[in-house]
Input
Amino acid sequence: MKKTLYILGIALLLLSAACSNKEEVSKQQDEHEPKQTEPVAKEGPSQEFEHVFPLTGIETNDDVNNRPFAVMVNNHPQARPQSGLHMADVVYEVLAEGDVTRFLAVFQSEKPEIIGPVRSARDYYIELSKGFDALYVAHGWSPEAQQILNSGKVDNINGMVYDGSLFWRADHNVAPHNSYISFENIVKGADKQGYSMEEEVPSFVFLSEDEVKGIEGTQAEHVRVSYSSRDIFAAVYDYNQEKGKYERYSGGDQTVNRETNTPVLLDNVLIVEMNHRLIDDYGRRAIDVTSGGKGYLLQKGKAQEIEWRNVDGRIVPFVNGKEVGLVPGKTWINIIPTSPGIAGAVSFGN
Output
């Protein structure tokens, strides 16, 4: 009898231990398995913005009443890669002397820490800058440009006056490819001269999301723009399908920001022909920026033939007498001579 009770007791102890162990294992499993919970609804309306940047069409809650500033940026091979171009809302690329192009980079929505190399003024660059009522920034001038800038008719700061103070010389290049300026110093220069840096800026016409999706035209995923027989100054635009934007190349190298290697990415590429004529033995030019003419507009990998017009000082595309809207984002405007013109200067490839 005692033996039977002893065996029964041992069995009960083993059973109790087994149950306890099973509960412990179950508890540990519960701790490691994801708990099933009721799904949480992702709520809230999409973000609403109060403003739209007038030169890019990008929505924002930032102040948009900032006066544009336009900087002459060097495009000589010794000046590449440049600083700040990736932040420009609009860039005009136009010939100077010697079949060398220069950039008039117009900034409003973004303010680069470093911009340059800064180069000298020409009268037609000043005229294009006036279309934005921009504070014009250059280092040097032609005789015609000097007369305009010294007349007081155009708000400007120039490295001829502020070299070594607002403008500095970088040690990675030699003159005249080493003059730089910052947004901070542009503001200081405006303050010195008593120029206001606040104003309401007229907006470009921009496409809606549905209109962007409906863009039509011929295939234009690889486009080359020649300014002359000098290939080093030809511009190439490759459409990046993934980003939905154009990348820019010069001399086989992508156009990027010197300090960060950030690429220039464009939503609108406007190519227009204008009458160019030489005015002196030095090779300076007069360019007709007002009369209108032929052009191409590249958007979303498509090209359409347009007519350009000068509307309140800005170069704007038209089709069948109606202004063509821009894709929200950044815009690059290539101004080429009427000889050889669009037909001879622009080529499309794969």
About this structure: The first strand starts at residue 51 and ends at 52. Residues 2-32 form the longest helix (31 residues).
